[in-house]
Amino acid sequence: MKKVIGLTGGIASGKSTVVDFLISLGYQVIDADKVVRELQAPQGRLYEAILKHFGSDFIDETGQLNRAKLGALVFENREQREKLSLLQDEIIRKELYHRRDQFLGRENADVNAERDFRENTDEKPREIADVNSVSNFSGSKIYRKLPSVNQLLFMDIPLLLEYGYDGFDEIWLVTVTEEIQLERLMARNHFTKEEAKKRIDAQMPLAQKRKFADRILDNSGSLEMLKKQIEEALLAVNREK
Ligand SMILES: CC(C)(COP(=O)(O)OP(=O)(O)OC[C@H]1O[C@@H](n2cnc3c(N)ncnc32)[C@H](O)[C@@H]1O)[C@@H](O)C(=O)NCCC(=O)NCCS
Ligand SMILES: Nc1ncnc2c1ncn2[C@@H]1O[C@H](COP(=O)(O)OP(=O)(O)OP(=O)(O)O)[C@@H](O)[C@H]1O
User: Fold this and answer.
1) Model's pTM, two decimal places?
2) Average pLDDT over every residue of 123-142
């Protein structure tokens, strides 16, 4: 049976890092931030609506949406953030559910989507070395099977809990300590402490998100530690199928 796993977290908690690893293993991922960027591109379904409601000040000289400028506005001002959400939410939600339904075979996929799906589909079972196995010490590795790549779909949705997305078989939460989240966000986006805090405060606190999660991936440590937790989570999906 196919399973849909909702992947969420906080801003800069490491969702894309988890996604990169899942993709390297061959899994299919719907990345909500990427879908939003596609919809916000000129000709995209969100572009005209944003232009109409926020004005041409938010369009740059190449005709693209100036996301940095819009981001600065909406994270500064809750009312503007709600206005943007009202404008975008339904269209984004429909698109994400449509893509999920294509994976589940609930809709007739269009030609391109179907082709992409087939190109990404690989029947081979994934195998990884069991990192906890004693036999590793004698040099021979024990392999345990990961779920096959066409059995699972991951949906990376930053605001999954805030916006009440549903229909997942499991929810995985990528979490970090508040200090590390702030540090990584400032470093990645070159934000001041104040700018970073505003973005973090626009989301449900990670401590609160924990109670909605079926699995917690703690990304406060190294990338290696994160990968081990992802492998364990994948093996658990297989055990519980
Ligand atoms: C405000 C926008 C233009 C800023 O763009 P920018 O390129 O600066 O940021 P980016 O899109 O890469 O988002 C980075 C992160 O910010 C966080 N974030 C984005 N929008 C919001 C929001 N409205 N509230 C809280 N956090 C948000 C998410 O963790 C996201 O991963 C853009 O994020 C946007 O359109 N956001 C709304 C997206 C949305 O409604 N998504 C719903 C499905 S998750
Ligand atoms: N274990 C780790 N150790 C050190 N740096 C890390 C680790 N995991 C992620 N990072 C770095 O932290 C930053 C945030 O990670 P990432 O972009 O994956 O977060 P995200 O949750 O996808 O963010 P957003 O919500 O903004 O899309 C990136 O610069 C990434 O390279």
Assistant:
1) 0.88
2) 46
* Terminal-to-terminal C-alpha distance of the chain: 8
Q: Give the binding-site residues of ligand 2, using a 6 Å CB cut-off.
A: 9, 11-17, 33, 158, 184, 188, 219, 222-223, 226
How far is the centre of ligand 1, averaged over its atoms, from the C-alpha of 199 (Å)? Answer: 9
Can you give the pLDDT at residue 107? 67
> Pocket around ligand 1: residues whose beta carbon is below 6 Å from it?
11, 32-33, 36, 67-68, 70-71, 74, 81, 85, 88, 92, 157-159, 199, 202-203
Distance 197 CA to ligand 1 centre (A): 14
- For the chain, which domains are there? 3-239 (3.40.50.300)
CA nearest ligand 2 atom 15, residue? 14
Q: pLDDT band at 55, cuts 50/70/90?
A: very high
Q: Would the ipTM clear 0.85, i.e. be above it?
A: yes
